[in-house]
Design brief:
The complex is a heterodimer. By secondary structure, chain A is mostly helical. In chain A, helix 2 runs antiparallel to helix 3. Chain B is mostly helical. In chain B, 74% of the residues lie in helices and 2% in strands. Chain B has 27 helices and four strands. In chain B, helix 3 packs antiparallel against helix 4, helix 19 crosses helix 22 and helix 20 packs parallel to helix 22. Chain B starts with a helix and ends with a helix. Classes of the chains: A mainly alpha, B mainly alpha. The interface between A and B is medium-sized, with 14 and 12 residues. Chain A: It is an enzyme of class 7 (translocase). Chain A: NDH-1 is composed of 14 different subunits. Subunits NuoA, H, J, K, L, M, N constitute the membrane sector of the complex. Chain A: It is found in: Cell membrane; Membrane.
């Protein structure tokens, strides 16, 4: 199989992920899009590893090993991410990213309450 | 022990006493009194030993250099000649008397511990000035005395008079000390040394380049410290401090420091004829002005304060005619009888419950309440008025004799004009001195009216000291005028016939005229009732005095004078009475010349700081603030916007990197 196919597939996957991160409103779907981007990279790692080992320049299959690492890390990461989303949802009653604007600049320029609100958002996040 | 070791001990003992007193004052109150009295007495004994060893012979000189100090070396040096030895004994003697007196006077004072420690520190500083052979070390003692005086004048800081007086004393003396410091540096630059012996050696060979400038700069400091015109205004106000402080600082020691300094460096001043004439004019104005002012004061201590200024005028007068022997002779005898006058006045104030002469003149039998103070004060007033054979007579005659000597042209030390100025002013001041001494005595002790309530006898510690001080007031002059010339290596100090007759004559005239005026005016005394009296006459003397000072303005509307038609001074001075009571309005002149310009300058600085400097600071802050407000608009809180911007930035950077890499 020519290297182009997995490469194009991973580009498509990555772009879908980017679009999802930028455009989805639900936090869980954003996390899923992040997973898509991660897996696009994984796909690249495997494809290039195979291609390089075919050329006998690389025999340790470090690309595939790294992929396994990435999958493990991604599992941990999605766990933490989902926990955060759950906590945010409990706190503010929504997981809609458009409405989670606690870090926005306050309504008044010198409102002393603005930083405390930001701090609260940070603390909950 | 060598004489040098003993001499080092003299200032060191009171200093250690002061440190121990300050440290133990709160934890061990039982030690405070011994720690106050014993170091002073020990210093007196050691100073007497030093005097006996020095014996008026060759000066004892010792110096050690702790560390190199740049161009002109500063050394810890001693220079003990006859002047230093005798003045140190006087200082230690008066300080011991004052410490003993204070144990009775401030018996119940809650701040006695710090008071006694400051008096000890002050004594130590004065002894340092007296013994020091290096001008910078002398300056250290000089300034320590200034700050001790500030704290002691403000001892009753609850009263606004004491607060104002202490600030004034400090600021006015500092007004003189700044030129003094510059003068010292100029002197050291010219002679290449701060050592007194080296300086005198250089001056003797004519090595002084700018004698007039240096002498006038130094004179400013001397005028401030010794309360000479025009920097004398702090001394009458400083009477707001406790009476023992007035006796020690403002009669016998600190104010004498200026005179003593000039006496030590007299050749420097003699190098400039202009400085000598200025000194003479200063002395003349001081003598006459203070005499007139003393005649109009109502507060018994302010009379004595103006009298001190006048007597210091005699000393500077003696220096202006180049006779330091006469100046220091008068310093010694004046130190004894003026300390006695103040301490006796403290006892009188305690018994009468007032410091106002007008109120005392309406009290009967005051002299019977304080017989010790009455008799000793009579002796001291006779000494002050220079009636033979009291000590003041001999010392004052030595001053007048020296002035006459110069006026008739028998010496080239000083200009003849200075001699005539001092002689005439001295005779006029002798008249005024006798007049105000008589007035003080008559008003205080010959009052008629309700009997003074009896608060019991004065404490023994107070009365014994008065008699101890009465001895030198009575006898010092007659003994000393024969032996002192040997100590001072100066010409004869014996009174000459002309000045003796003239001086005693005018003094008698002044006394008799005042008596006649008092006889004439005393009939008015019954018309105006008694004025201010302290609220707690049974308290300790310090408390009575503080209350008396606080009530004077309330009763009479003025701190220094009282509207009393029975006052003989009013009749004698006529239209001059009102300005004399106000010290010839010199305070108003100072307010116009110094106080208001300084306040205006302060307002200007405040304006510059608030309106000009702060505008720049605010501007520097406002610009970043505006920029920040603009940037802050990007912070919408929408994470996806941020990520989009990040992505766009990454893409742009990647494209740019790619273009650079491919060389496009």
């Amino acid at each position: 199989m020519h290297l182009t196919y997995p490469a194009v597939l991973s580009v498509l996957l990555f772009c879908t992920g980017v679009y999802g991160v930028l455009a989805r409103r639900n936090a869980i779907l954003v996390l899923m899009s992040v997973e898509l981007m991660l897996n696009a990279v994984n796909l690249n790692l495997v494809a290039f590893d195979v291609w390089l080992s075919k050329a006998a320049r690389e025999t340790l299959h470090s690309g595939q090993a790294l992929t396994l690492f990435t999958i493990a890390v991604a599992a941990a990461e999605i766990g933490i991410g989902l926990a955060i989303v759950l906590a945010v949802h409990r706190n503010s009653g929504t997981s809609d990213i458009d409405r989670l604007r606690d870090t926005a600049e306050g309504h008044g320029d010198d409102d002393p309450q603005a930083p405390t609100a930001a701090e609260k958002a940070e603390a909950t996040a | 022990m060598t004489t040098t070791t003993l001499a080092v001990l003299v200032p060191l003992l009171p200093f250690l006493g002061a440190v121990a007193g300050l440290l133990l004052g709160r934890t061990a109150p039982g030690f405070v009194r011994p720690l106050a009295v014993l170091p002073a007495l020990a210093a007196l004994v050691v100073a007497a030993l030093v005097m006996a060893r020095q014996g008026g012979g060759r000066a004892v000189d010792a110096a050690t250099q702790l560390t190199p100090t740049g161009s002109v070396p500063v050394e810890l040096a001693l220079h003990i000649d006859g002047f230093a030895a005798l003045v140190a004994v006087l200082v230690a003697f008066v300080a011991s008397c004052v410490q003993i007196y204070s144990t009775g006077y401030l018996r119940d004072d809650p701040r006695y511990a710090s008071y006694a420690a400051l008096v000890s520190l002050f004594t130590s500083a004065m002894l340092l000035v007296v013994y020091s052979g290096d001008l910078i070390v002398l300056l250290v003692g000089w300034e320590v005395m200034g700050i001790c005086s500030y704290f002691l004048v403000g001892h009753y800081w609850e009263t606004p008079e004491a607060r104002a007086a202490s600030t004034k004393a400090f600021l006015v003396t500092k007004l003189g000390d700044v030129p003094f410091l510059i003068g010292l540096f100029a002197l050291a630059t010219d002679t290449g040394s701060f050592r007194i012996t080296t300086i005198l050696g250089t001056v003797a060979t004519g090595g002084l380049d700018h004698p007039t400038v240096i002498a006038l700069l130094l004179l400013a400091g001397v005028a401030g410290k010794s309360a000479q015109f025009p920097l004398h205004t702090w001394l009458p106000d400083a009477m707001a401090g406790p009476t023992p402080v007035s006796a020690l600082i403002h009669a016998a020691t600190m104010v004498a420091a200026g005179v003593y300094f000039v006496a030590r460096l007299l050749p420097v001043f003699e190098a400039s004829r202009a400085a000598m004439v200025v000194l003479a004019v200063m002395a003349a104005v001081t003598m006459i002005g203070s005499g007139l002012a003393a005649l109009a004061q109502d507060d018994i201590k302010r009379v004595l304060a103006y009298s001190t200024i006048g007597q210091l005028g005699y000393m500077t007068g003696a220096l202006a005619v180049g006779d330091r022997g006469a100046a220091v002779f008068h310093l010694l005898s004046h130190g004894a009888f003026k300390a006695l006058l103040f301490l006796a006045a403290g006892a009188v104030i305690h018994a009468a419950g007032t410091n106002s002469l007008a109120a005392m003149s309406r009290m009967g039998h005051l002299r019977d309440r304080v017989p010790d103070a009455f008799w000793t004060m009579t002796v001291a007033l006779l000494a002050l008025a220079a009636i033979p054979p009291f000590s003041g007579f001999f010392s004052k005659e030595s001053v007048l004799g020296a002035a006459e000597h110069v006026a008739t042209g028998h010496t080239e030390h000083a200009p003849g004009a200075a001699g005539w100025t001092v002689l005439l002013a001295g005779l006029l001041a002798a008249l005024l001195t006798a007049a105000y001494a008589t007035r003080l005595w008559l008003l205080a002790f010959r009052g008629r009216g309700a009997e003074v309530p009896d608060h019991g006898r004065q404490p023994l510690s107070m009365t014994v000291v008065l008699w101890v001080l009465a001895v030198p007031s009575l006898a010092l002059g007659g003994v000393a005028y024969r032996s002192l010339p040997g100590w001072f290596a100066s010409p004869d100090l014996a009174p000459t016939l002309t000045t003796s007759v003239l001086g005693t004559g005018v003094a008698l005239v002044g006394g008799i005229v005042t008596y006649a005026a008092w006889w004439h005016t005393t009939a008015y005394a019954t018309r105006i009732p008694l004025g201010a009296v302290a609220a707690h006459p049974e308290g300790d003397a310090g408390q009575v005095e503080a209350e008396a000072i606080a009530s004077h303005r309330a009763a009479y509307g003025d701190l220094s004078s009282a509207p009393d038609p029975a006052d003989p001074g009013r009749l004698l001075l006529g239209p001059l009475f009102r300005p004399a009571a106000a010290g010839f309005h010199l305070d108003a002149v100072y307010a116009a010349l110094f106080v208001r310009p300084v306040q205006a300058a302060a307002r200007l600085v405040r304006f510059l700081d608030r309106e000009v400097v702060e505008t720049y600071v605010r501007g520097a802050a406002a610009v970043p603030r505006l920029l920040g407000a603009a940037v802050r608009r990007a912070q919408t809180g929408n994470v996806q916007t941020y990520v989009s911007a990040l992505l766009a930035g990454t893409v742009v950077l990647a494209v740019a990197a790619l273009l650079v890499a491919t060389g496009a």
